Amino acid sequence: MKLELSPQRRDDTLQVSVAGDVLTINGTAYNLARLPDGATLPRSAIDCEWIAGDVERVGGVLHVPLLLPIPADADEAARFPQPITVLADGPVALPLGRIEAPPLPVYEAPIEPENMKEVSS
Description:
This is DUF2169 domain-containing protein. The protein is mainly beta. The chain has one domain. 3% of the residues lie in helices and 33% in strands. The chain has 1 helix and 9 strands, in the order βββββββαββ. The strands form 2 sheets. Strands 5-6-7-1-8 form a 5-stranded mixed β-sheet, with no helix packed on it. A 4-stranded antiparallel β-sheet has the order 4-3-2-9, with no helix packed on it. The longest helix has 4 residues, at 76-79. It starts with a strand and ends in a 30-residue tail after the last strand.
């Protein structure tokens, strides 16, 4: 199965897994096994907001366009995602990364005995 990703600025999440020709999106399974080679399943026939276009089977491989929700601070991999070729059943890792801010430096002031206070319990 080949997943073609279309990034869209959204605050919700997407979880995808594959089992053969069954694509599970956020807990709902879509069985695409009956789509023959060379056929197209129109987007309008699929009740799923995450499928972004027609689903096709080309050379025995399902091609599924999916919306990819990305945060405002998405990294390059999420903003310009490469298609994902799924070779094994299970969860699909999606590029949902955020730009990592550099860690803030931690400054510790030395504790001088005259600045220490007694703590009682």
